Known about the structure:
By secondary structure, chain A is α+β, with helices and mostly antiparallel strands. Helix content of chain A is 25%, strand content 21%.
Amino acid sequence: MNSFGQIFRVSIFGESHGECVGITIDGCPAGLSLSPEDLAADLERRKGGKHKGTTPRQEEDFPIFKSGVFNGKTTGFPITILFENKNIRSEDYTKQRSIPRPGHADWVAHQKFGGFEDYRGGGHFSARLTAGIVAAAGIAKKLMKGLNIHAEVIEIGGNKDLEKGLQNAIDAKDSVGGIVECRVNGLPAGLGEPWFNSVESVLAHIVFAIPAVRGIEFGTGFAAAKMFGSEHNDAIMEMDGRTKTNHAGGVVGGITNGNELVFRLAIKPTSSTPKEQKSLNWDTEQVEKFSIKGRHDLCVALRAPVIVEAVTALVLCDFMMLEQKIPRIIE
Amino acid sequence: MNSFGQIFRVSIFGESHGECVGITIDGCPAGLSLSPEDLAADLERRKGGKHKGTTPRQEEDFPIFKSGVFNGKTTGFPITILFENKNIRSEDYTKQRSIPRPGHADWVAHQKFGGFEDYRGGGHFSARLTAGIVAAAGIAKKLMKGLNIHAEVIEIGGNKDLEKGLQNAIDAKDSVGGIVECRVNGLPAGLGEPWFNSVESVLAHIVFAIPAVRGIEFGTGFAAAKMFGSEHNDAIMEMDGRTKTNHAGGVVGGITNGNELVFRLAIKPTSSTPKEQKSLNWDTEQVEKFSIKGRHDLCVALRAPVIVEAVTALVLCDFMMLEQKIPRIIE
Amino acid sequence: MNSFGQIFRVSIFGESHGECVGITIDGCPAGLSLSPEDLAADLERRKGGKHKGTTPRQEEDFPIFKSGVFNGKTTGFPITILFENKNIRSEDYTKQRSIPRPGHADWVAHQKFGGFEDYRGGGHFSARLTAGIVAAAGIAKKLMKGLNIHAEVIEIGGNKDLEKGLQNAIDAKDSVGGIVECRVNGLPAGLGEPWFNSVESVLAHIVFAIPAVRGIEFGTGFAAAKMFGSEHNDAIMEMDGRTKTNHAGGVVGGITNGNELVFRLAIKPTSSTPKEQKSLNWDTEQVEKFSIKGRHDLCVALRAPVIVEAVTALVLCDFMMLEQKIPRIIE
Amino acid sequence: MNSFGQIFRVSIFGESHGECVGITIDGCPAGLSLSPEDLAADLERRKGGKHKGTTPRQEEDFPIFKSGVFNGKTTGFPITILFENKNIRSEDYTKQRSIPRPGHADWVAHQKFGGFEDYRGGGHFSARLTAGIVAAAGIAKKLMKGLNIHAEVIEIGGNKDLEKGLQNAIDAKDSVGGIVECRVNGLPAGLGEPWFNSVESVLAHIVFAIPAVRGIEFGTGFAAAKMFGSEHNDAIMEMDGRTKTNHAGGVVGGITNGNELVFRLAIKPTSSTPKEQKSLNWDTEQVEKFSIKGRHDLCVALRAPVIVEAVTALVLCDFMMLEQKIPRIIE
Lengths: 331, 331, 331, 331
């Protein structure tokens, strides 16, 4: 299913080289002032082509409100936002069709959808669909005043000096992975539940919806597995729940404890490496050498922070509404 | 919400020191032969007290079928399974009540539920509820013949020699974390979808429902963030999708590709360390020294594998039913 | 699926002649005082055998709280309530097994579940499962102070003189149908939405879950189809939305308008009539004469009002929680 | 929520006088050939202005596929269909704004959404949104070969002679209600479940999503409440479940029994009657006389059949997919 959320619920649709990509947001309170300008800054961040190592494909990425906004305010009904696809070069993909690209969804899509999938530019698998997610998150962010969500790349190709990490890849004429860290401040205690509705569960769920994510850890994460309990435990120091350390990353028992929410993601290297590769040719049934053409990011991690912030905002907004911390009418 | 799954759906209930813990499984096909013996082996594995480093609390853990089974077979209607709580020593917890235990849900539960939560033995937060999950998974496993799900601890306290890792903790009189790895063989290609219903999303969701899990990674995981694309890409070698390497861990584009499914979890050290700690006393509003009493695992990671297998089985069974790979009547 | 509700969510399980029937309520706020006595009056009303025309089967119907209640108050976690089955005479049903009873689910259950269904006493289809629904509704009613939900039989066998309608059936040695009307006072305006979450949609959904219901109408209902618009329209007379007439039955555009909520249900005659009938014998594949044995209501409509009130309470409670009209902690 | 369905799931959006109305269909199998022409016949039937008593508003109602269709076939991913709004005369509504129209959602919408709702032409409440529903149903119908769903008006203003019933309203210069009957042939036995997923529950749910529906009855319906059990019971005559009579209307125990599915709906008279009415003026807080302007149907029941067929198709398609009676890839 292409929907997510319980009260503040998003549904995505569209293909990379089809007419458009888009999103519908259901459950947004009425009365929130909303214009394309509110979404512009994050949509601009999401775009490629701005810095070294990102794809030169340039879409206008202008959010077209098709419903749910009236006189500049949300109506309480579904908000559908479209992004038209204009800057398309599908021929790159048609040529490539006989060899399912390693690391890409070509083979699984073909196997699962019987060849009926729109393979151009990754079709529905394309990261272009995150335009809708970033737009929806712009609304979520407006609903959560006082919350600060910040994600950034903290490592490229194992290198904390990001310039150097990227330069290594450029020198190697190869793509490269990275680590993204997200921190949220200003979050109330009491969001989430133990078990299936834990904050970690729901965040991890949506984070793995982002293409190229291969791992997530909260707080100290994998390093916690190497620690003793007396080191890892965060001593509570104040009546408001503030702890001395924050190994938990702000979530205990599935519930936010009012401390900074912290998690990190592993982003794999872009599958579309400029390097020559070997893989199976479907038509000849032979393993062949080939090279990938098209416009691609060298390091997709560089484009991930705004998307990570976006999915985080969607999840937190939904939790806030479940806890009645956002009213049904904004005035 | 305490339910999970779309077609094969489980709902958990109960408290550690209440009358019982239990689970209801909705959506199970009719006609599957089912008896308590089918669930016995995994329930036995789940129990503590068997090896060094696990809690000496011993419950009988006998699954009582309350509904949905007739003449030894499933009826197609909800199966409710109860585990009675007998071996309870709540006084340990009452004494502790004034100091919310670091790493435990005491503080967040109190904050969120206004003090009405059942705090005895962790109440609804207790890992004892995994008895129901393991039982439900026993049913899921019977529905998925030919599938092999295997999880094991591969590291304790940073040590791949598990005996040594555990001995370090015993020597330090401290609890310790660990890494659990899960591998699934025999899985068909084509389970899952891109975006919100990706195999990684749904697995990560349920895995973080397990208490003490702090991270998850698929395939090469966090190490992928340090790699070049040409290293990480798995070349497809056969028409059935088999790849030369398996850095993807069996999932590409959110969809299983028929290769081995591989993921690893970071398990934090047991919060109930035997070590003396400092934390806030709610009544005195002072930070005080204290020690935790009660029966606890030194390394909860040791008890995790059977639970990790269980949640994996639940998720895969649901995906299999969505793909019509399990019939509505088993004959 | 055997679950219903978005935030205040119930899940039913059990069989008529199995170990028990029961329900789990998820999403109930913490802090509500709750004891079996709170549920006793409605459970007593639900029982048969009290008046002419209802089954003499007598169950104790004592609600056993298995989870979610601590120190006499709800904890905010799932509340599971069991009703043990004690007064069972399954031999009546075993004898009957070769002829699927007309009006009953015997044939469809056998066809759908391949003969694995628990057929004794209707199994999971039995109205005995409404014990759980009535219990859950007792909780919902406590959460909605100031709301008055009242249902009653207003017609038996086409007769508004209920005694006479029932006597006709007794004289005819036959079962008989009836009409139940439900009225809710004190409901706030603003519950529900147009389209799929309309108050009528959700109420109708759950009302048809009650066995034997064959129709539902809101306000003037089917009679509205014979009217002119100028007759049917309810003129708004007051700023609080009160209307001169109430043909709408309190719901306009799917949303409550603050007037009395009114709907009526058609209940079919009990399928287990004492009259001799003809139907197919599965074993002989011949149409044969037969008579139904067992303890049955002559007019199930007589037992419906408390169940109709119950499902109404469940739906309204969920709508109230969606609109943030019930807090997460009751103090 | 503006979504409906479990596997074959639709989400509607849009407003009567906004940019568009539309629908997204998620869960449609891949490989179904699909073009606007497939949807044309039913969309044409849905349009007003064709016969006496329907609104002269004429929209082109051309379905624009925005996603999910590639090379003329469905891809297995969300299909979004838009209908642009062109033929709009909003000034009719602006003038009317001070008096909430009786029978319409004006008052409840204003109360619930704080005045932020798009009131033009009923906004999101408008029957214009059924264009999307009819389009989605066109897809569902293509997936269910061999199924015949037919709805028709069987009574207008209490008159089975439809011409006469309509003429009475025209003569009275008033709007009028009617009865719509829907019959489905070719349906397999075994769809649905007892309780919350009964065929009656889910059909009633979606049927009450249609504006102006005030009642629904299955089979003999309300008349069953006047019958004896021996009259109402449908004797099973054949091993395939065929019954002598069909008072049940094809559903027993919530499950289809393979006989014709039959249900009837009460449709209220169009709220926008040409007659002068009295109601409250919000601005003056006085009850005033007023008349409704704008283009409206005299008898909305006349436009209902195609919509009733549509929602029926959506529900049945979802049930068929749950029962694995429609494959995931159509070839």
